[in-house]
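Q: Got a minute? One more chain.
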Amino acid sequence: MRVGLFDYGSGNLHSAAQALREAGAAVTVTANHAQLTAQDALVVPGVGAFGACMRGLTAAGGRELVAEWVASERPLLGICVGHQILFGSGTEHGTEERGLGVLEGDVVHLPVRRLPHMGWNRVVPPAGSRLFRGLSGERFYFVHSYAVLKPPPGGLSSMTKHEGVSFVAAHEKGSISSTQFHPEKSGTAGVALLRNWLSGS
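A: Always. Here it is, folded:
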């Protein structure tokens, strides 16, 4: 599987590329749209603030790239803030930023005392999940203070909890997959998940 890792100025590109290669992908890290569209699958990473990621992605032509990719029904994986920006909007510090709107829902501040939510947490996948095939009950690595609290309509949402608050840890809808956690920082479970994504794509 040839995977394009979108380098729009945000994300753990080196570690994500390394984990994808370990999972069996041939990885191209680039911002060049022609090179990316020549690949079989696309990964949209992201770290930091929702708004900053959206501005960087927009400046790199990412809105158009992702829209065309989704329309072509080729495999797409969003990671961390790359997962968040697939949704309709994100609110940070009282300011709402428009997301890509590929998935229905809003990214909000986690209503908990201890933030960021950082470290290992168990993810509960639904029946029929391709991403979590053989991975029920595994722990994955999270670093974030914002999340989608309500599972979006359509597709399959895998959930987790922080201080009793449930939120979307991953979502699968058609050719679109996304994870709030970092598969590339989640050890063998993360590589197994990426392998599932590649084999199911």
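A: The chain has a mean pLDDT of 96.
Q: Perfect, thanks.
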